[in-house]
Amino acid sequence: MSEASQIHIPPSFMALHVPPGKVKPLIGQREMAARHELCEDMAQLLTEQAANLQFQLGITEALALERCLRGLLATPSVVSEAEARWVVCRLAELLHWPLPEWALQPDT
Predict the structure, then answer these.
(1) How confident is the model at residue 6 (pLDDT cuts 50, 70, 90)?
(2) Is residue 24 part of a domain?
């Protein structure tokens, strides 16, 4: 059994790479696993930075998450916009913060 097949990729991440009305992702399993690992690592690495940002600046959790999203979108060659939004949602989950308002709205 390969290492990639042992990695659990959440359906929320897989859905980022499936076009509307289709069931098959646009990328292969290996690339999907690599993209997920990158995004998960980014969320894990941002936990301390986001918590410190929120505390030091005295801003809301939502604003700290928004700033993290803007930072991720500043270099679109690293992650796509959809992946950046997934990273921020995962970051909120890791920090036990409420999901950003935009994450709760359908069609965004």
Answers:
(1) confident
(2) no
Query: In this model, does residue 5 exceed pLDDT 70?
Result: no
Q: Flag whether 9 is in a domain.
A: no
The one-letter amino acid at 49: Q
Cα–Cα distances in angstroms (integers) from residue 101 to residues 33, 39, 78, 89, in the given order:
28, 21, 24, 10
> pLDDT class for 106, splitting at 50, 70, 90?
low
- Flag whether 20 is in a domain: no
Token pair of 79, please?
């992650």
Q: Note the pTM of the prediction, 2 decimals.
A: 0.87
Query: Cβ(66)–Cβ(107) under 8 Å?
Result: no
Give the model's pLDDT for residue 1: 37
Task: Tell how many helices (H) and how many strands (E) occur in the chain.
Answer: 6, 0
The total number of structural domains in the chain stands at 1
Token digits for 83?
């992946």
Domain that holds residue 107: 60-108
